[in-house]
Specification:
Blueprint lengths: L1 E4 L11 H11 L5 H22 L2 E7 L2 E8 L29 E7 L25 H10 L6 E8 L2 E2 L13 E5 L11 E7 L3 E3 L3 E10 L4 E9 L2 E10 L3 E10 L8 E9 L12 E9 L3 E6 L6 H9 L3 E5 L8 H4 L4 E5 L8 H12 L4 E5 L14 H5 L2 E2 L11 E8 L9 H14 L6 E7 L3 E9 L2 H11 L11 H13 L4 E8 L8 H10 L2 E8 L5 H10 L4 E4 L5 H13 L3 E6 L2 E2 L17 E5 L2 E2 L4 E5 L5 E8 L2 E6 L9 H6 L3 H12 L8 E7 L2 E7 L11 E4 L2 E4 L1 E4 L2 E7 L6 E7 L2 E7 L13 E2 L1 H11 L7 E6 L1 H19 L2
Parallel strand pairs: 3-4, 3-5, 5-7, 9-15, 16-17, 16-18, 18-19, 19-33, 21-22, 21-24, 24-25, 25-26
Antiparallel strand pairs: 1-2, 2-43, 6-42, 8-10, 10-13, 11-12, 11-14, 14-15, 20-30, 22-23, 27-29, 28-31, 31-32, 32-33, 34-35, 35-39, 36-37, 36-40, 38-39, 40-41
Helix pairs in contact: 1-2, 2-17, 4-15, 8-9, 8-13, 10-11, 11-12
Length: 825
Amino acid sequence: MTFFLEQPFWSILILAWLPIFWYWRKRLGKETLWHSGLILVLRCVVVLFLVVAMVSPVCTWKNLARYVVCAMDVSGSIRTSDTFWNLEDASQFPEVDTSRGDVRVYVPYARTMGVRQTRAEAILEASPDPSATDLSAVLAASVAMTPEDYVPEVVLYTDGTYNRGLEPRWMGNVPLRVVRHAPAGANGKAETWIERIEAPTSAFSGEVVAVEAFFQATEAVGEWNAELLRNGESVETQTVVFEEAGVRGVCFQATAKPKSEESLVEWEVVLHLRAEQNQMTENDRLTMVTQIVPPRRILLVERSPQLGARLADVLKKEFLEVQSCLPEEVPQNLEGLKAYDLLILANTPVSRIPVGVLKAIEAYVTQWGGGLLVVGGNQSFTAGGYHATPMERILPVICLEEGKTQREGLGLVLVVDRSESMKRGNAIELAREAVKRALDVLGPQDQVGVLVFADTSGWVVPICSLTQENKKQAFENIDKIRAVSVTNMGPALEKAFRALQEMSAVRKHLIVMTDGISNPDHFGALAEKFHQAGVTLSTIALGNEAEPNVLADMATIGKGKAYRCTDPESLPQIFTAETASAAQIGVVEGQTPVRQISSLPAFLHFDFTQVPPLLGYVQTRAKIGSRTIFETASGSPLLCWWNCGRGKVVAFTSGVESHWMETWSTGWKDFGRFWGRLVNHAIRKETDGFQVRLAFQGDGMNVLLQVPSGKELAENPQWTLEGESRSLKPVAPGVYADRILVESGKRYPVAISAGEFTWQGIAVPPFSEEYRPDRQKNAMPALERMVEETNQNPVTYVSQTLPFWSFFVFLAMVTWLVEIGFRRA
């Protein structure tokens, strides 16, 4: 203990005592001796006390009492059954000497600091949020809470990891001690967790969706099970094997069946692990929600009523709504097609679809993002006249037969009207083009003749085999056709009949096209003649002045097809389709083994090695940029797809409605499921080109909206979370984003609006990063440096100071009051 004067200069005032004493002695002369002497002594004592107070006497001594803060980590990575701090084990805590005034407090911490508690309450009543660890905050708070008159000391109980705040910072010369507990996944203890799950944010009821889950382990943990729950009920369980540390992924497939009271599906992936494979259970479950949207509509186009019934029934069993129609009933424009999310053409020849509708289908796929599935048959693709049409432009295949294909030759005669009325609407020019297109699809094995008629008839192309040289000459002659005179079709048909009788071809066919029949004749008898001779007859009624009933009767008798063409622009595709169908171009029948060369996510868990061979298909060639899933032994694609503009187009070149797929429909258990998955792959997934993404990072959720290219918004998109409206801000051209803090495991309804576009969904943040060992930062190197630095010159005592000036002022006041009392007595 030491005494000293802080202001010794003021001690000079003691010299003023003599004149004050003389003055006071003179004034007290009239008093009695003992009375005046006592008053004088009291006054002198007052002066003495004041002088002593002014020189400020101080007493100092060393205080060795410690204030020990035991900061207890109660974050999620610590609070597990086998890592609980043992409060009964006193050896974990520093010793204190209560006799000299040492104090020890226990403060739990995690994301924030708790309150100072006794040892028994430190963990049991811990209040900090365990979802994160902030070491910087706890170190700063531990130092700040030490009273000034104590020697500070901090003991940090930690697993050495943190995931919030900055790296722990130096605390000056406050002694620091670190007691470390092994973090999850360290010291030979394995830790396994769900890294993330991915599922569609929206789906329609009954849609089969893929739920992908990714798992991570700190070391080889062997074999265990992962389970998928849908709305709390088990759907599928898969086995996962970790032969070494790393990441593994599995893909579940399940039907999106919503809860009865809500339009959403809640997916939950659960790990089933043994205790030695896993330390923390909080990261063994992860949830994602899929919003159910209104059912997608499918339009099935079939050549005749109920022809596509098998395919429609299969799709309805896969929870898909199907509406059927004839080719002539397909909506005529893009707006009409927008009512459907997928268009299916089942063995439909291009000649049955008007050119305007074909262009609308092309816009439907490329511009609006609609899905298109084209199913084959003997009147589709190459055999349906798709080559060089708007349909072929959007298909992933080229509709041409293989050059080495051997087929029976066709004997074909084209009877074409060239009367004066064919000048209207460029009909004669389109007729010339149609005839050339028809000849172009045939080959050297075919015999062809072109006969034109008006009031008289004549051969433009005499009967010949279609070698390259003959085809070139035929095209030159066809270009010379001109419209003249009136219509007289009967003699032309007689000539065509005689020519077809002389042909050596096994299969013979006649196509007659006219825009009117001005001279009545016995056409029914002529058609019967053709039929008796084994010649099939098809008719084309061009324009409104033709007699479609007469021509239709002829086609019925002749076992052919009757076309009514009101638009001359459709003539080329009608001629091409009819010729290809009659010649069976590209049609291959017989057992065809299926070879798989790639796959789709939708076909996960399908065993295509057990698929029976098909009994027929239509030859095509895959385009560059397309993706072939199945092909024949010769390399002709059976199942092929590509992205066309904003839409998706799938081509299946075998026929579901013909006998070609009897082996699949009767001998393959996954036949229906195959078509359901294929439709789900092709169906329109976009919402007017807008794309929404919700991503979680740290404590926050990122909301991202991508606007379709070329679309401008009048104002920033708005989004709502739990009733609070916020604005999405532009972060890149056509991209708007925002970020907000969220709580783990809580469900957040999210709504986004941008002009006419609206979207609703449910976001479920994953478990906190506290339970992700790979996301936690290692603080031990920084803590070890701090321990070394703070223990080089530690604080061993605190200097205590006691000033006495106030005490002497108090004595002076008391003495002064006593003096006043004596003086007035």
